[in-house]
């Protein structure tokens, strides 16, 4: 298991250092995400590189990933889902600068230090499926003591027997 990452980061400093953060961020403080899923893991895997692109944008790129428990909206049973986000952010000092960014970047508004957990949480929220559901739901298990419906006669078998009887009489 990799070392825990710092809670607070100065993204501009990390860009200047061409730093890469690889490790785990605790999920305990991710209240917004917690409200959107059934259960959170202890920590989120993070691999983020800070740098300057050819147009001198300060960028944060990489990946965040966590396995969460979601509630299937079709069968209402919980299931594990991997939330993974390919991160492609460019730093801006304020919202006003965001529209000028190339389309491949989402803005990361930061004037100075930011909480790493907030950045990671935002990315995971964006990675949530629009509608959570199993690819294929499991068939419901009958409850103990629940009456099992009696086997119905196969209508085709009945038909075949009638035809046979028909043939015998002619
Ligand atoms: Zn389901």
Automatic annotation (TrEMBL):
<dbReference type="InterPro" id="IPR003772">
    <property type="entry name" value="YceD"/>
</dbReference>
<protein>
    <recommendedName>
        <fullName>Large ribosomal RNA subunit accumulation protein YceD</fullName>
    </recommendedName>
</protein>
<dbReference type="InterPro" id="IPR039255">
    <property type="entry name" value="YceD_bac"/>
</dbReference>
<comment type="function">
    <text>Plays a role in synthesis, processing and/or stability of 23S rRNA.</text>
</comment>
<dbReference type="Pfam" id="PF02620">
    <property type="entry name" value="YceD"/>
</dbReference>
<comment type="similarity">
    <text>Belongs to the DUF177 domain family.</text>
</comment>
<dbReference type="GO" id="GO:0005829">
    <property type="term" value="C:cytosol"/>
</dbReference>
<dbReference type="GO" id="GO:0042254">
    <property type="term" value="P:ribosome biogenesis"/>
</dbReference>
<keyword id="KW-0690">Ribosome biogenesis</keyword>
């Amino acid at each position: 298991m990799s070392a825990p990452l710092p809670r607070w980061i100065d993204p501009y400093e990390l860009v200047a250092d061409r730093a890469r953060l690889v490790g785990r961020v605790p999920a305990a403080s991710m209240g917004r995400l917690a409200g959107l899923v059934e259960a959170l893991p202890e920590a989120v895997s993070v691999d983020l590189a800070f740098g300057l692109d050819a147009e001198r944008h300060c960028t944060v790129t990489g990946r965040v990933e966590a396995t969460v428990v979601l509630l299937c909206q079709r069968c209402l049973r919980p299931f594990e889902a991997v939330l993974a986000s390919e991160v492609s952010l460019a730093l801006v000092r304020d919202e006003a600068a965001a529209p000028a960014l190339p389309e491949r970047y989402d803005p990361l508004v930061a004037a100075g230090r930011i909480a790493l957990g907030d950045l990671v949480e935002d990315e995971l929220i964006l990675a949530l499926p629009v509608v959570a559901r199993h690819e294929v739901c499991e068939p419901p298990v009958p409850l103990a003591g629940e009456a099992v419906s009696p086997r119905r006669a196969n209508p085709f078998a009945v038909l075949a027997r009638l035809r046979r009887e028909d043939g015998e009489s002619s």
